[in-house]
């Protein structure tokens, strides 16, 4: 029977801390759509002090969405179109689609190239958030991943920009009333979990270094700069992502295969001594797969 659980699939699986639950239960609230929720305003002020782009969709260059819809996916959805050539029959080459997919692998960028970023980048580069985002007109900050809030993303920008965002939010039916209940948890996340991110990065590096010593596994340790680890199976190895996933599940460890030869692991503040436990289980799983008849 599995008595220990280590969930490395994503940092979206974080659970609210006791302090968050207490803050949510006692949060001062009012109608945020009318602009009166005090806890929401407190969170907005904190994010504004801290900070003083987004998704893409791959489209054919002759597609209806790209040619005829007035940039609606960007205007309403905030999604940037990336176009590739349409074939004569209207299809797109699968190779072109694959090549168009961006794959940052959790890496951080040079400060001179960073436009928008999450708190993980701030911790990895060791500079204040406001320094990294000073050239950006707006920033979207997720609070529900490594920071561990149960829900929430904050948009930060100029007063004019935020007023426009609120209008669009109302148009799309996205307003919430007593939002302070959720903002209270977000404030605790900023106060308690923000300083812990650097330790998450160190734990991820430690795990990557240990994994890289194992037979049949390859990791670019130098590329592990934040809390994400990408583990590849070496060519010719008996290991596959699915075999390892199944073996680890028996130990109570959950991981996320990216394809047949890659597994992603994500560290967050709930993961403590589990790094050493995970390494031990992976060592045993790899040995069992490579040497199935060994006693």
From TrEMBL:
SUPFAM superfamilies in the record: PLP-dependent transferases (SSF53383)
Pfam families, per database record: Beta_elim_lyase (PF01212)
Domain of life: Eukaryota
N6-(pyridoxal phosphate)lysine, modified sites: 145
Keyword Mitochondrion attributed: no
Assigned keywords, A-Z: Lyase, Pyridoxal phosphate
Cellular component aspect of the GO annotation: cytosol
InterPro entries in alphabetical order: ArAA_b-elim_lyase/Thr_aldolase, Low_specificity_L-TA-like, PyrdxlP-dep_Trfase, PyrdxlP-dep_Trfase_major, PyrdxlP-dep_Trfase_small
Gene3D superfamilies: Aspartate Aminotransferase, domain 1, Type I PLP-dependent aspartate aminotransferase-like (Major domain)
Cofactor(s) for this UniProt protein: pyridoxal 5'-phosphate
GO term, biological process aspect, one: glycine biosynthetic process
Keyword Repressor: no
GO MF terms held by the record: L-allo-threonine aldolase activity
Family: Belongs to the threonine aldolase family.
Name assigned to this protein: Aromatic amino acid beta-eliminating lyase/threonine aldolase domain-containing protein
Naturally occurring in which organism (per UniProt): Brassica carinata
């Amino acid at each position: 029977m599995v008595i220990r659980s280590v969930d490395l699939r994503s940092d979206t699986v974080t659970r609210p801390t006791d302090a968050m639950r207490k803050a949510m239960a006692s949060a001062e609230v009012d109608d945020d759509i009318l602009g009166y929720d005090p806890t929401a305003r407190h969170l907005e002020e904190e994010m504004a002090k801290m900070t003083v782009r987004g998704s893409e969709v791959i489209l054919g260059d002759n597609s209806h969405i790209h040619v005829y819809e007035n940039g609606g996916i960007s205007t309403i959805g905030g999604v940037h179109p990336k176009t590739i050539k349409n074939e004569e029959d209207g299809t797109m080459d699968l190779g072109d689609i694959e090549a168009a997919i961006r794959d940052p692998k959790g890496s951080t960028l040079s400060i001179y190239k960073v436009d928008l970023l999450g708190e993980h980048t701030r911790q990895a580069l060791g500079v204040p958030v406001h320094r990294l985002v000073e050239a950006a007109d707006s920033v979207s900050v997720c609070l529900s991943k490594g920071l561990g809030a149960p829900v929430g993303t904050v948009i930060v920008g100029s007063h004019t920009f935020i007023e426009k965002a609120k209008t669009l939010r109302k148009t799309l039916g996205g307003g919430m009333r007593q939002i302070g209940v959720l903002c209270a948890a977000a404030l605790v996340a900023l106060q308690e979990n923000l300083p812990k991110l650097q330790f998450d990065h160190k734990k991820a590096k430690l795990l990557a270094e240990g994994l890289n010593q194992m037979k049949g596994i390859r990791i670019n340790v130098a590329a592990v700069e934040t809390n994400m680890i990408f583990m590849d199976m070496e060519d010719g190895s008996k290991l596959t992502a699915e075999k390892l996933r199944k073996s680890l599940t028996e130990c109570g460890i959950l991981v996320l295969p990216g394809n047949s030869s890659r597994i992603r692991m994500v560290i967050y503040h709930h993961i403590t001594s589990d790094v050493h436990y995970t390494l031990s289980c992976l060592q045993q799983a790899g040995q069992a797969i490579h040497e199935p008849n060994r006693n």
